[in-house]
Amino acid sequence: MDSPTEVVDPHDSFESVQPSLRPPSTYPKWPFYLAGFLVVIGIAIGILLTVTVPYYAVSPGPVYDTSDFVTVEGGNTADTGELFFLTVSLKEANVFEWAAAQFDERVELAKVGAYRPPDVSEEQLRRESLALMDQSKQDATYVALTKLGYEVTLIGTGALVIDTIPGSAADGVLQPNDIIVEMDGKTVAFRSDVLSLLAPKSVGDPVVVTVERSDGETDGFEVDDFEIVLGPHTDDPTKPMMGVLLDNNEPIVEFPVKVDIDSLNVGGPSAGLMFTLQIMDQLTPEPLTHGMRIAGTGTIHLDETVGAIGGIRQKVFGAIDAGAVAILVPAGNYDDAVAAAGDRIKVVRVETVDDALDFLNTL
Questions:
Q1: Alpha helix locations (H) across the chain?
Q2: Which residue, 195, 233, 234, is CA-closest to 113?
Q3: Is residue 326 part of a domain?
Q4: Does any domain span residue 75?
Q5: CA distance 362 to 351
Q6: In angstroms, rounded to a whole number, what is the distance separating the alpha carbons of residues 259 and 257?
Q7: In this predicted structure, what is the pLDDT of residue 42?
Q8: In terms of residue numbers, what domain contains 228?
């Protein structure tokens, strides 16, 4: 049987039997909208990354073994155990870092003015920070050697003016390279003496500062008295401020043992306690750490007291990350350190060098 034959109606149009000649369907538009949206988002993120907020993000910084920084002539570095000093990382926060810090216990947000007063430049702040480190190294060496019974000569020759803060009480009165030798008739041997003499003062109090100033023509100098009325501090208006950035003028130093502390570009005074312990460690027959990892922080003063520091929470986290079994902290930072540590590390309260030594002797 023959296969059926297709019959074409003669009334059908020609197009009805030809392939369709209609234009192809239009592509969907949503991918283009999505790509445009993503480009806009990318540009917005790029812009926001460059926008800083008036806060520093304070986070745990590097942890250093003090034996890598301290070299004592004739001293011995322990084969086991470490004495760590702790640092914080300080960075101007952008919008995203500010937001992330709200959910990160390791990061603290601090107003920029808490670390750098409005009229102090980054360069001025850096110079003062390095000056604080230099004094810390000198004081640590003095305390360690005298603690071990060495005869040490350390004679301060005044506080050197690095710079003045624009608009402050000292601005236009004192000059860079002035040497403050007296304040209200009391001798100023080191920069710390200026801070001590200012501590009981109030805003509006006058102070008479005696300075040695170069005559500009010879190697000689002139001695002048200047009265300065203390203004409000940029951090706390209830406290007085003279408005000077200070260093120690070159002291007369005679250490019976050569001690070299290479602090690289690390600034600030908070490594003082640990430098002191490291110098003593190298000059004693038995290691102070008894083979354990001990971290610590705190300023050191010539009377062997240990002063409070900033960023204690972040330093506690740094000590934990370094695997330390204990952290030595100044008495003024103890409560905050305990709160940050929980049960992850032992926190030791230290008011003097003896407190630190007493704990190390229990290891």
A1: 30-49, 95-101, 112-115, 122-147, 191-198, 272-282, 312-321, 334-341, 353-360
A2: 234
A3: no
A4: no
A5: 17
A6: 6
A7: 66
A8: 153-254
**DSSP letter string over 116-181?**
S-TT--HHHHHHHHHHHHHHHHHHHHHHHHHHTT---EEE---EEEEEE-TTSTTBTTB-TT-EEE
For residue 88, tell me if it sits in a domain.
no
Provide the 3-class DSSP secondary structure of residue 184: coil
How is residue 181 written in tokens?
A: 């030798």
Please report, for the domain that includes residue 182, its CATH number.
Answer: 2.30.42.10
In Å, the largest CA–CA distance within the chain is: 135
Q: Map tokens 């009334």 to a residue.
A: 11
What total number of domains does the chain contain?
1
The whole-model pTM stands at 0.76
Tokens of 26: 């239009």
Q: What is the pLDDT of residue 33?
A: 65
- From residue 62, give the alpha-carbon distance in Å to each of 1, 18, 84, 315, 318: 96, 79, 10, 9, 7
131 vs 244: CA distance, rounded Å: 13
For residue 210, is it within any domain? yes
Answer yes or no: are the C-beta atoms of 144 and 288 closer than 8 Å: no
Instruction: Report, as ranges of residue numbers, the positions in the chain whose pLDDT lies below 70.
Output: 1-27, 29-33, 37, 39-40, 42-53, 96, 114, 118-119, 216-218
C-alpha to C-alpha distance for 302 and 191, rounded to whole angstroms: 13
